[in-house]
Specification:
Layout: H1 24-27, E1 31-35, E2 41-48, E3 52-58, E4 61-67, E5 76-82, E6 86-87, H2 91-98, E7 110-122, E8 125-134, E9 137-152, E10 158-169, E11 188-202
Antiparallel strand pairs: 1-4, 1-11, 2-3, 2-11, 3-6, 4-5, 5-7, 7-8, 8-9, 9-10, 10-11
Length: about 210
């Protein structure tokens, strides 16, 4: 089930233009959703020593999704991530990541994303474009997402789910630390894959 409907491009024999019918089930998804951090993951994958991948995630994050079930252009997303919550499974490595060599979490405690555009690519695929800010450097970012559907959980919460990813060059955000290898190449690749697995709960309508 596609989250958003799309206008047909087929020619019609009449000069009267009619708005496409809106699926009531899709329209019902319209609203503001709060990201559920207990059932969501924001992570990354980066090449290490030219031969393997290191994966990590940020355990503390929050955000909202504003969805329009009839027009994706009216949808938006806002996410805040606590840098100090980074977890790669090795404490020493996490300590290095939050230090001045990388994120400098004491001076720049948060990474943020604010969307400026949303569009349907086809079927359940969407793209959200906006601004990613790391270490007070703000640059554009497009995130390709798959809509995983909607459901009402056992507590009566209305949920939607998305998963997606985006590739960035960390040097674009001032994350430039590296070390040369004796065999050639560098310790940490510039290219980083950001990953998003989001479950969000619909806010109750205000009275």
């Amino acid at each position: 089930m596609a989250l958003f409907t799309r206008k047909s491009t087929a020619a019609t024999p009449t000069t009267v233009t009619e708005a496409p019918a809106v699926d009531p089930a899709l329209a019902a998804l319209t609203g503001v959703y709060t990201i559920d951090p207990a059932h969501s993951s924001i992570g990354f994958t980066v090449r290490h020593a030219m031969v393997t991948n290191v994966r990590g995630s940020f355990g503390e994050h929050e955000g909202t999704l504003t969805l329009d079930g009839t027009d994706p252009a009216n949808s938006s997303a806002a996410i805040d991530v606590k840098i100090a919550s980074v977890d790669t499974g090795i404490a020493d490595r996490d300590g290095h990541l939050v230090s001045g060599d990388f994120f400098d979490a004491e001076k720049f405690p948060r990474m943020t994303f604010r969307s400026s555009r949303a569009e349907q690519l086809g079927g359940e695929a969407y793209r959200v474009t906006g601004d990613l800010t790391i270490k007070d450097v703000t640059r554009p970012l497009s995130i390709d997402l798959e809509f995983n559907g909607s459901a009402t959980d056992v507590y009566g919460n209305e949920r939607v789910g998305f998963e997606g990813s985006a590739d960035i060059l960390r040097s674009d955000w001032g994350l430039t630390w590296n070390a040369a290898l004796e065999t050639g190449g560098v310790m940490v690749s510039d290219k980083v894959k950001l990953t998003f697995d989001i479950s969000a709960i619909k806010a109750a309508p205000q009275a």
